[in-house]
Design goal:
about 350 residues, alpha/beta, Rossmann fold, UDP-galactose 4-epimerase, domain 1, 2 domains, 7-stranded parallel sheet, two-stranded parallel sheet, 12 helices, globular
């Protein structure tokens, strides 16, 4: 039974949901983050940078689990991504080892696979990242492998994009356009299948990895929805819920990709390069390993997860703030030049 859990990135969407679940189970939760939000659910809040070794060591002392969810986003500058993701992970793992924390659950990403030729993609597929974010996450996994060799138990979770109450980021654009009565554009036909994940299912996966026997859990696990369809179907769910009778509109693939790449390079769009390419083909991971070894069974489909996010946005967030520069997934990102396209749709 978990008694004291430390969460890095505790103010993020995942950290908040995980801390809430642990607190409901009478667990002492220590939240580490640079800043803390008003809705923080951790019992004890520690303001520190995950690259500050002394501060992290003090915070993790006496913990029986450390969940490392703090990270940069793909929109950050390359040097900042490397510093937060790679050096932050190095510091966190060293702190856990020095304080004899028995287990660290490390949050990685499916981005380490790059644009895999094998879909659904298994954990055995080689790491082939294509952008600074994916490369940094792959290097962080290499640090995990070294920590395991030194005796630390570190399950690695590779989740797909996760949704649910609290998720905004780039999805805020879809929610805003839908609520205002606009059609929503997609690349090509929009009939590519793109697996996502509900945050509550990711919390389930973390807790399973935290409590499974070490010889079972000490490996990598893909985490994603079991039920998912096409992007067109998922986005249409939001448009239907908005009630304006609007539709998903397909754009000619090559011209649309060329425009989005130009805007991404000029930093005039929140749609970053890897996402542009990922939206052009089916994207899903094989989750049989986590099902077979940990008994994981996701509760929510893509459409249910995105619907939960939209309903939360409509009832609790809409109109409460502006657009951030893409610093977290809990804030709406700047739409840049794409905001002008609303007039067309």
């Amino acid at each position: 039974m978990l008694r004291r859990v430390v969460i890095t990135g505790s103010s993020g969407m995942l950290g908040t949901a995980l801390a809430r679940r642990l607190a409901e189970n009478d667990c002492e939760v220590v939240g580490l983050d640079l800043t803390h939000r008003a809705d923080a659910t951790a019992g004890r809040l520690v303001t520190c940078d995950i690259r500050d070794g002394a501060a992290v060591r003090r915070a993790v002392r006496g913990a029986d689990l450390l969940v490392h969810s703090a990270s940069a986003l793909p929109s950050y500058a390359t040097a900042q991504i490397d510093s937060i993701v790679v050096e932050g992970t190095r510091t966190v793992l060293a702190a856990a080892a020095s304080q004899d924390v028995p287990r660290v659950v490390h949050l990685s990403t499916g981005s380490v696979y790059g644009l895999p030729a094998q879909v659904p993609t298994p954990e055995t597929y080689p790491r082939s990242p294509i952008d600074p974010y994916g490369r940094a996450k792959a290097r962080a996994e290499e640090l995990v492998e070294k920590a395991r060799a030194d005796g630390l138990v570190v399950p690695v979770l590779r989740p797909k994009t996760f949704l649910g109450p609290g998720r905004l980021g780039i999805f805020a654009m879809l929610f805003e356009w839908a609520a205002e009565g606009h059609h929503f554009p997609v690349l090509g036909s929009g009939r590519v299948r793109s697996q996502m994940l509900d945050v509550e299912d990711l919390v389930d996966a973390i807790l399973l990895a935290a409590e499974a026997p070490a010889d079972v859990a000490n490996t990598e696990f893909n985490v994603g929805a079991a039920r998912f369809g096409t992007l067109r179907e998922d986005f249409q769910t939001v448009l239907d819920a908005a009630g304006h009778g609007k539709r998903v509109i397909g754009l000619p693939m090559r011209p649309a990709v060329a425009v989005l790449e130009l805007l991404a390079r000029a930093r005039l769009s929140p749609v970053y390069m890897r996402l542009i390419h990922k939206l052009r083909a089916d994207s899903c991971m094989d989750i049989s390993r986590i099902r077979d070894r940990l008994g994981f069974e996701p509760r929510y489909s893509n459409r249910e997860a995105i619907s939960r996010s939209f309903e939360w946005w409509r009832t609790e967030h809409r109109g409460t703030g502006g657009h951030s520069g893409g610093r977290t997934s809990r804030d709406p990102w700047q739409q840049g030049a794409l905001r002008l396209a609303k007039a067309v749709f």
